[in-house]
């Protein structure tokens, strides 16, 4: 969930009233926001870097507000204020207009070289905008928030904003060899080639995260103006030449990306938010983008879409009984201008360009419910009559674990993920013999594979509890995972039961007795007759030679029991003899 | 032992005594050391309520060794006086007597004797009076006879100054009859034996009392893990509410079931390598229900079922990628898909509690794997009000009654609501679960009828367990670093009962 940080006083000034922290927290809760933290720049620095560093930092109160991940229109002070004021019916939702310029339209021409790396671009102009320090900061911060969220860290979309008065169109969006791109990037004093820049930014804490997007590509995306001035090398950096400042009057915005829909949304969000500060409020100057196929489009789209939803559908989904007129009012408060039409039961809802999150009637239903107030909805029980059933494997597991405890064994709960070493080397096995599934992106060795046996987890549990009085008697009934090409995903779980006995003597007879008890519980008689169980001398790398037996029940091998090999005991950092038992319980369903 | 002669005498004396007796007095009476009587008192006390003994401390005057001597032999001055014959005694000779030096000066100041310094062979001492009254000896004899109180304060302190008297503190017992007083005492039995039962001798035998303040011996049985005890209770709650358990025994899931089927777009951050464990082997799902896959693909990329869709290029390779499921909602999706294939539609209530996996940064409250609890109801015409009603019943069974709901965003539910409950200890509202109605873009491609709504909610098993058992570090609860003592000591899980204080002892 993105967190937006706004100055409290600025926020209240824009909202036109003051709130206590509690009142504002309540308002957020009702609207689906969360007042996460009340802090200041000074407090943040002091927390992160110590009191000394915080000296002199601003102690203006900051509200950190958690915003739902799909509400890009609430990612800046301007949007939050507009949303809350409309919600509180203090203002009517503004209407955003795309206007044609008095002179020639700004043109961005996309060449076909971009196709393989970053094929889409959109653009717009904010004409006669008036920045202040706070507005400018918010403008930059919004781009950063969009980059981190909908833009997926610039992979899907990257935003460039430029001082239009320093440039001259038409602009060309193309892709070139890195060595052929040379310019003075933002906040640098000399020119570098793209190759040099990629090296320089490897140590830049902010930019290094974006390099991978184009790093290994033969051509890098780049935007020029008609004089060959580089506006930006998306998605990495803008040129210094067209840098915007507090004094910039006309802003050229370009968004390039791999996802056309998201590029259009991002552009819409930026221009709807900041056209508030244009001389003609909420108007945006159009720009033309010519695609390699010669087709030309005008942006921003600023599309208003109409949906018609029946009032009774909304009532039925929420569980309320409101008149269509009231529902239209509720929706209007959520920035969805609505009116009752047709037979008087239909509501026509206008979805503005700021509400890209509304893609289905269910999104409209939710907004009606929020405006109605979730906590005003009457709770009721569904009349759904059903007979409950347990999942048979879990039912058996539940029954067995109680009797395992009654037999004197204590239940462990160990991780399903572990290292290769745990399930292979430490048990004297080769990893290829385990049929284990392997994780491709583990952050540490603890998460290399899913366990193929419960034994390592229990032995590690003993190792972590060596101070406890002996004997230690542990068990676990849980799932292991192995590859299985007969399953749709190529792997499956098995429900295993594992028990260990750890003491000054190996206690094979105790583990053997436990097996006899388990078989008694499962109503499996001893003996080789059909349906019975028997153990037969066997061997395994994890067991002491001559002290291992394979368990056969109902005609199939279900596991092994025995005295663990001293090498296994040592590898798990244990010192005492230990016997164990591990079986698959699924044949007993 | 209690059957010593002194104890028996004590009991006989006590029987005759009016009210009680003092141990020191008894010792004096019997002519035995006081400690012998104290021993008898203590052993009788151990028998239970035969006697009552109250410890008293009294101050008492005793003669010093010199005082004893004087009580017997007379004071030094008296002894000096008596040693002087009628014709007097040379002073030098007198000084050689044992009491000479002290006695001479005292006898002089008492004016019992005089010194004639003009005698021919040196100073000579003569009696002045015929008889003397040895007051010091008399007083000391009084103290010796236990009548120190007959002396005045001044007299006692004078004797004390002369180191003839000393004040001692005596701890004595005031012994009186107990509820089970008897003069006949016998050796106590420690335990009831089969012989006593068969012979009936238990009727006549006294038994050594138990010390009920001591700890008992804990039983030797095994113990269930606290988290799984809580799991059992949650299963019970769902079963009580008529919910059927979904199969969740498949940790490995395809991205399709884990994300795509839930209408979670392929660029969603949760599908990032940083958040999800993907598999290297087997890297891809072998089979997907292709008809359904096409409907899902169309809904993501072009919309449909009343949706605009996400308008991006949906890729099958992405959906095939295997992973460790990040939520049990993948199992719910499979269950709902199965439900959708059954015609006609039958309402269903499902639940599951099982492990899920996140490639997250680990800390005191986050592990790479945890248990998710999920409840699902599918029926015609379910509303947000129904969801809230079910949640109220569910949380009431957990002992949580104060609930409120906050609008939220989940990729696969709309409307969505976070569930908050008022935490009495923290004095604030805390999130206890997440819920919503599954999106039509998820349900309709499965083939569920259009007017069927599916309400669902989820929470983690670890969080309520940590609160319940007062555990701050999740590693103490889950995984091999578990504190077994905590497992041994953990109480029953009664979710609707008031939480008691944490009980874990020892095992620091």
Instruction: Average the pLDDT over all residues of chain B and give the rounded result.
Output: 87
Q: Based on DSSP secondary structure assignment, what is the total number of beta strands of chain B?
A: 16
Poorly predicted sequence stretches spanning 5 or more consecutive residues of chain B? 501-508
Helical segment count of chain B: 19
How much strand of chain B? 15-25%
Cofactor (chain A): Mg(2+)
Subcellular location (chain A): Cytoplasm
GO biological process, one term (chain A): phenylalanyl-tRNA aminoacylation
Domain B5 (chain A): 302-379
Please provide a written account of the structure.
The complex is a heterodimer of chains A (589) and B (508). With 589 residues, chain A is an alpha+beta fold. Chain A contains 16 helices and 30 strands. In chain A, helix 9 crosses helix 11 and helix 10 packs across helix 11. The longest helix of chain A is centred in the N-terminal third of the chain and has 16 residues, at 133-148. Chain A starts with a strand and ends in a 5-residue tail after the last strand. The model of chain A has no long low-confidence stretch (mean pLDDT 94). In chain B, 34% of the residues lie in helices and 21% in strands. Chain B contains 19 helices and 16 strands. In chain B, the strands form four sheets. Chain B has a seven-stranded mixed sheet with strand order 7-11-12-16-15-14-13, with helices on both faces. The model of chain B is unreliable at 501-508 (pLDDT under 50). The interface between A and B is large, with 101 and 102 residues.
């Amino acid at each position: 969930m993105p967190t937006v940080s706004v100055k409290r006083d600025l926020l209240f000034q824009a909202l036109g009233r003051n709130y206590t922290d509690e009142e504002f927290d309540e308002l957020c809760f009702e609207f689906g926001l969360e007042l996460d933290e009340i802090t200041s720049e000074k407090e943040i620095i002091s927390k992160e870097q110590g009191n000394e560093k915080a000296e002199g930092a601003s102690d203006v109160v900051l509200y950190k507000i958690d915003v739902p991940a799909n509400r890009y229109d609430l990612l800046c002070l301007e949007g939050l204020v507009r949303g809350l004021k409309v919600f509180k019916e203090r203002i009517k939702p503004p209407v955003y207009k795309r206007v044609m310029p008095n002179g020639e339209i700004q043109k961005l021409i996309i060449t076909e070289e971009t196709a393989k790396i970053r094929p889409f671009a959109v653009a717009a102009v904010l004409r006669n905008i008036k920045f202040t320090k706070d507005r400018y900061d918010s403008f930059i911060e919004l781009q950063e928030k969009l980059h981190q969220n909908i833009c997926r860290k610039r992979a899907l979309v990257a935003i460039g904003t430029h001082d239009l008065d320093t440039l001259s169109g038409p602009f060309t969006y193309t892709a070139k060899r890195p060595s052929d791109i040379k310019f003075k990037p933002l906040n640098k004093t000399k020119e570098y080639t793209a190759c040099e820049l990629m090296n320089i930014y490897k140590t830049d804490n902010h930019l290094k995260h974006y390099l991978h997007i184009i790093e290994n590509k033969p051509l890098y995306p780049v935007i020029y103006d008609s004089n060959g001035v580089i506006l930006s090398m998306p998605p990495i950096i803008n040129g210094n030449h067209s840098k915007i400042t507090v004094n910039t009057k006309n802003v050229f915005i370009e968004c390039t990306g791999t996802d056309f829909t998201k590029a259009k949304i991002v552009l819409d969000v930026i221009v709807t938010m900041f056209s508030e500060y244009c001389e003609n409020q909420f108007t945006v100057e159009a720009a033309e983008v010519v695609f390699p196929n010669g087709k030309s489009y005008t942006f921003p789209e600023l599309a208003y879409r109409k949906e018609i939803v029946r009032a009774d559908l909304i009532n039925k989904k929420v569980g309320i009984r409101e008149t269509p007129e009231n529902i239209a009012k509720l929706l209007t408060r959520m920035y969805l201008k609505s009116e009752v039409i047709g037979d008087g039961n239909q509501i026509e809802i206008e979805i503005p360009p700021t509400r890209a999150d509304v893609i289905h009637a269910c999104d409209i239903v939710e907004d009606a419910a929020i405006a109605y107030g979730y906590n005003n909805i009457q709770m009721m029980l569904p009349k759904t009559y059903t007979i409950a059933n347990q999942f048979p494997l879990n039912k058996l597991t539940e029954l067995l674990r109680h009797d395992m405890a009654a037999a004197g064994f204590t239940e462990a709960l160990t991780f399903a993920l572990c290292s290769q070493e745990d399930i292979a080397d430490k048990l004297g096995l080769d990893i290829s013999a385990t049929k284990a599934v392997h994780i491709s992106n583990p952050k540490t060795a603890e998460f290399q594979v899913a366990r193929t046996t419960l034994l390592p987890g229990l032995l590690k549990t003993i190792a972590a509890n060596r101070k406890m009085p002996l004997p230690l008697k542990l068990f676990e009934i849980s799932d292991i995972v192995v590859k299985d090409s007969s399953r749709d995903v190529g792997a499956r779980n098995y429900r295993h039961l594992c028990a260990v006995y750890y003491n000054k003597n190996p206690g094979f007879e105790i583990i053997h007795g436990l097996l006899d008890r388990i078989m008694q519980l499962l109503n499996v008689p001893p003996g080789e007759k059909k349906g019975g169980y028997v153990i037969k001398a066997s061997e395994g790398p994890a067991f002491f030679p001559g002290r291992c037996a394979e368990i056969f029940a109902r005609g199939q091998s279900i596991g092994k029991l025995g005295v663990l090999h001293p090498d296994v005991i040592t590898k798990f950092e244990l010192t005492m003899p230990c016997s164990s038992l591990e079986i698959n319980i699924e044949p007993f369903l | 032992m209690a059957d010593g002669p002194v104890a028996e005498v004590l009991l006989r004396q006590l029987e005759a005594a009016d009210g009680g007796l003092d141990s020191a007095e008894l010792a004096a009476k019997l002519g035995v050391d006081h400690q012998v009587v104290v021993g008898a008192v203590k052993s009788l006390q151990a028998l239970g309520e035969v006697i009552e003994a109250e410890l008293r401390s009294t101050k008492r005057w005793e003669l010093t060794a010199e005082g004893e001597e004087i009580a017997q032999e007379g004071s030094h001055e008296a002894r000096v006086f008596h040693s002087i014959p009628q014709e007097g005694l040379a002073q030098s000779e007198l000084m050689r007597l044992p009491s000479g030096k002290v006695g001479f000066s005292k006898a002089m100041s008492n004016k019992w004797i005089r010194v004639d310094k003009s005698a021919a062979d040196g100073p000579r001492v003569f009696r002045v009076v015929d008889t003397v009254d040895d007051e010091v000896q008399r007083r000391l004899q009084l103290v010796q006879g236990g009548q120190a109180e007959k002396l005045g304060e001044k007299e006692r302190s004078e004797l004390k100054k002369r180191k003839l008297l000393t004040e001692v503190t005596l701890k004595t017992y005031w012994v009186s009859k107990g509820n089970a007083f008897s003069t006949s005492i016998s050796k106590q039995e420690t335990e009831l034996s089969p012989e006593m039962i068969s012979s009936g001798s238990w009727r006549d035998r006294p038994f050594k009392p138990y010390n009920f303040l001591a700890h008992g011996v804990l039983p030797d049985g095994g113990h269930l893990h606290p988290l799984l005890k809580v799991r059992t209770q949650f299963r019970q709650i769902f079963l009580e509410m008529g919910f059927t358990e979904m199969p969740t025994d498949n940790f490995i899931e395809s991205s399709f079931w884990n994300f795509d089927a839930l209408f979670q777009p392929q660029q969603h951050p949760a599908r990032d390598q940083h958040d999800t464990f993907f598999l290297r082997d087997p890297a891809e799902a072998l089979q997907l229900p292709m008809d359904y896959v096409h409907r899902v693909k169309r809904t993501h990329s072009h919309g449909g079922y009343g949706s605009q869709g996400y308008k991006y290029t949906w890729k099958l390779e992405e959906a095939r990628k295997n992973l460790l499921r990040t939520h049990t909602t993948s199992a719910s999706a499979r269950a709902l898909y199965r439900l959708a294939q059954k015609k006609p539609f039958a309402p269903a209530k499902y639940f599951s509690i099982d492990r899920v996996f996140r490639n997250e940064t680990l800390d005191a409250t986050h592990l790479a794997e945890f248990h998710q609890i999920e409840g699902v109801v599918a029926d015609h015409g379910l509303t947000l009000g129904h969801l809230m009603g079910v949640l109220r019943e569910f949380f009431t069974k957990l002992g949580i009654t104060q609930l409120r709901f906050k609008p939220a965003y989940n990729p696969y539910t709309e409307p969505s609501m976070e569930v908050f409950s008022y935490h009495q200890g923290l004095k604030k509202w805390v999130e206890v679960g997440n819920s919503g109605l599954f999106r039509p873009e998820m349900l309709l491609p499965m083939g569920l009828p259009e007017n069927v709504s599916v309400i669902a909610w989820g929470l983690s098993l670890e969080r309520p367990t940590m609160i319940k058992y007062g555990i701050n570090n999740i590693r103490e609860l889950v995984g091999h670093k578990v504190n077994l003592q905590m497992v041994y000591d953990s109480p029953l899980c009664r979710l609707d009962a008031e939480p008691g204080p944490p009980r874990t002892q020892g095992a620091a």
